[in-house]
Amino acid sequence: GNSVTQMEGPVTLSEEAFLTINCTYTATGYPSLFWYVQYPGEGLQLLLKATKADDKGSNKGFEATYRKETTSFHLEKGSVQVSDSAVYFCALRPLGSYIPTFGRGTSLIVHP
Amino acid sequence: EAGVTQFPSHSVIEKGQTVTLRCDPISGHDNLYWYRRVMGKEIKFLLHFVKESKQDESGMPNNRFLAERTGGTYSTLKVQPAELEDSGVYFCASSQEGEKLFFGSGTQLSVL
Question: For residue range A54-66, what is the model confidence (pLDDT) as tens digits?
Fold first, then answer.
């Protein structure tokens, strides 16, 4: 079946540090890949997506590249801010399906 | 434009009681999804409505859970009778064509 594996959290960083949150997936075919973010007290929001191999999704300084050969979609940001503190969820959606499969989420805490 | 609204935001009940969660999707969104996240684990799919029809209910854990979407507008998820393992955050999401999901802020259910 389809599954998403994320690195364990929490990830604790100082402001302006480099961020990587690892995500790998298992799926048949060529799923679409997503990163969602949940800020405290809010619902999940789509952060970025990629729909085919080697595509790079980007938004708000965050980037992730769809790597078919390593089945990965790692999230990166060059310089994090305190306001980036949130829970980040990696997800996949199989081709032809309306149902995303989510990982367990990775909590990010950024200190001033 | 109003987002996805869930009610209540928190619910604390005793084992054996009944609880009903409500979700109001974004107006015009035909697709409505229910997901659940147990503490620290994956966000698990429960079911998917297209308008008033259940398109996929493969994630519903057992027959103590009943979801409805009368008239294709708001949806309810009833748990009867509630068990301890039903505790978690219940998320509702809606979408127009399945590409991007809009999430509510969730209902935190605690069964004591």
Answer: 999 999 999 999 9
* Nearest alpha carbon to residue B109 among B90, B93, B81: B90
> What φ, ψ does residue B86 adopt, rounded to 5°?
-80, -10
β-strand B10-13 against B107-111: which pairing, if any?
A: parallel
Cα three-residue angle B41-A10-B35, rounded to 5 degrees:
25
pLDDT tens digits, A10-53: 999 999 999 999 999 999 888 999 999 999 989 999 999 999 99
User: What residues of chain B lie within 8 A of the CB of A98, using their CB?
Assistant: 31, 48, 55, 95, 98
Backbone angles phi, psi at B89, to 5 degrees: -105, 125
Coil, strand or helix: which one is B103?
Answer: strand
Interface mutation vs chain A, best among B36, B42, B102, most A CBs within 10 Å: B42
